[in-house]
Amino acid sequence: MFDYRQYQRNYFMPPEVCMDWAKKEYVDKAPVWCSVDLRDGNQALIEPMNLEEKLEFFQLLVEVGFKEIEVGFPAASETEYELVRTLIEKHMIPEDVTIQVLTQARDHIIRKTFEAVEGAPGKVVVHVYNSTSLAQREQVFGKSKEEIKQIAVDGAKLLKELADETEGNFIFEYSPESFTGTEVDYAVDVCNAVLDIWQPSADFRPIINIPATVEMSMPHVFAQQVEYVSKHLKYRENVVLSLHPHNDRGCGISDAELGILAGADRIEGTMFGNGERTGNVDIMVLAMNMYAQGVDPKLDLSDMPHLVEVYERLTQMHIDMRHPYCGQLVFAAFSGSHQDAIAKGMKYREQKDPDHWTVPYLPINPEDVGRTYDSDVIRINSQSGKGGVAYIMEQSYGIKIPYKMRADFGYAVKDVSDHSHAELSAEQIHDIFMKRYKNHTPIFDIKGCHFRQENNGITATVNIIANNRKDIVEASGNGRLNAVSNVFAEKFEKPCEVICYEEHAVTDGSDASAIAYVGIRGADGEQYFGIGIDPDIVRASIDALISAMNRSME
Question: DSSP state, 238?
Fold first, then answer.
């Protein structure tokens, strides 16, 4: 039964209005990033990664630049425990990388966790949590607020005790799990009780992590909750305030961004948003959002196709084609107006403002993340326009289609795509272009053309073959192309008015070829175009005129 009346707002507003975050314009520096791909992300996979796959994924995270990586829940399974021991014993953890392990606030689980991380090089974050929400207290545990807080305090004490007994350098982290369903002032009370046990200092800065375990409110509400926590935590200057947003309402990114504005120092998430239910916050999108506004994200995402390939192979998950920044189609423009704006924007940037990216419809330069313009940006189908088709021809083949010719070619390409119900590749577009405009001679061709200079201009003598008959026709004009057009007009008793002529080189060097474009107005008043390609520009021009004239006579 689809009945909205069974639902209510199960979150809690903070006891006071907290809106300082709304005065800030944007996230001006990267938070501390902590990847939880190997734990939170992995547990959400249909088929969790094995040890070898986890080790490869760990290396990928290191390459991207993560300095904090949650590697698992060592007490949860043998594979999780083995991963931690393998990383430690095989010296696979770089000096500047801190691993993190997760544990419930339960005695035997905490002890097993410390066994797993004993002897680890560098720092290790031991992350302890227990649920604090009203629903969990009433429905799952049947405990009072004081009893739930005592679980957190006991866990905090045991962490401190075992850290003193175990070889290693440990940092503590606490999460009031299901924070979003917890009374905000009560959550702060629990966190402060934990901090009183740990006694933060300038040399020992524990982490308080605020998880949107289930996303329940609009982002501005979550921001107020985070700001209240930030303002009321004890020892705040020596505490790292972390967020762990999920995406149940589809607002994980905005929760994280507004949460940073509200005072958070650190973000836990997965590289492409994988996680339970609708997933964790997508760190790649968060980082690229900063990058797109000129802020250093402190992560290297310059080879996005490689990151996607490894992620999909190891997790057996699929990146959607429209996934921000990394999907196959996120830079693709099929719309004709979009294509035209992009092409003009690229030209503007090249000529007038190469140091700044302001190209319409492209929030970032696709090349920055390992994508290419020719195959990733302008894509051609029945929705495309003349500008996009012209852009493909120039980028892929160096063919600069004259403006007057673009509409004719654009409609030709659109017609092919519309009938095939398919996207067209650059090769297919080039093939349409060549068949339509080059050597198009169903009516006539010429086998020779000679010119002589006369007082009134140029006289052309042309050997024309039509209907298996050869004729030699002469006519004069103010130039070679004009003279030949007058020959055709006289021979066929049809107008051959040249309305468009352009040319340019298509190859470099001593054997360079030129391409000529000719447009004429036919007897029916319509425009017809042809091209010619030849090392001799005069020959190329005549070939283009022959093709255009033939098209006008069909």
Answer: G
Instruction: Output the CA–CA distances (angstroms, integers) from residue 266 to 98, 244, 256, in the order listed.
Output: 14, 9, 10
Q: What is the predicted pLDDT for the residue at 386?
A: 73
The pLDDT value recorded for residue 337 is 79
Sheet holding 457-466, edge to edge: 444-454, 457-466, 469-477
Query: Would you say the C-alpha torsion 21, 23, 27, 28 has a positive or negative sign?
Result: negative
- Mean pLDDT to the nearest integer, 267-286: 96
User: Does 230 have pLDDT greater than 60?
Assistant: yes
Q: Which domain holds residue 69?
A: 4-299
Do 429 and 483 reside in the same domain of the chain?
no
In this structure, are strands 207-212 and 240-245 parallel, antiparallel, or unpaired? parallel
Question: How far is it, in rounded angstroms, from Cα 193 to Cα 153?
Answer: 6
Considering the chain, what is the average pLDDT of its residues? 93
**Structure confidence by residue, pLDDT tens digits, 493-532:** 988 899 999 999 887 555 678 999 999 998 899 999 999 9
298 has pLDDT over 60: yes
Residues 229 and 140 in one domain: yes
Buried b (16+ CB within 10 A) or exposed e, 169-195: ebbbbbbbbbbbbbbbebbbbbbbbbb
477, 483, 473: which is closest to 542 by C-alpha? 483
Number of structural domains, the chain? 3
Element (H, E) at 374: helix 373-376
Please tell me whether residues 451 and 422 are part of one structural domain.
Answer: no
User: pTM for this structure?
Assistant: 0.81
Q: For residues 543 and 532, is the Cβ–Cβ distance under 8 A?
A: yes
pLDDT digits (tens, 9 = 90+) for 38-90: 999 999 999 999 999 999 999 999 999 999 999 999 999 999 999 999 999 99
Q: For residue 265, how far is the Cα from the chain centroid?
A: 25
The last residue of a domain, from among 279, 299, 319? 299
Give the rounded percent of residues in the chain with a pLDDT score beyond 70: 97
Residue found by looking up tokens 């003598």 in the block = 461
Residue 314 domain-assigned (yes or no)? no
Q: Are 206 and 172 in contact (CB under 8 A)?
A: yes
CB of 436 closer than 8 Å to CB of 519: no
DSSP string for residues in 45-74: SSS---HHHHHHHHHHHHHHT-SEEEEE-T
Q: Clarify whether residues 274 and 391 are in a common domain.
A: no
Q: How far is CA 299 from CA 94, 290, 333, in A?
A: 16, 11, 27
Using pLDDT thresholds of 50, 70 and 90, give the confidence band for residue 381. low
Q: In terms of domains, do 96 and 75 share one?
A: yes
Helix (H) or strand (E) holding 551: helix 537-553
Asked if 423 and 522 sit in the same domain, the reply is: no
Q: Could you say which DSSP state residue 368 is in? A: G
CB 242 within 8 A of CB 265: yes
Query: Could you tell me which of 97, 103, 104, 105 has the C-alpha nearest to residue 124?
Result: 97
| Element spanning 268, H or E | strand 266-269
Please tell me whether residue 179 adopts helix, strand or coil conformation.
Answer: helix
What b/e readout covers 424-447, taking b as 16+ CB neighbours within 10 angstroms?
bebebbbebbeebbbebbeebebe
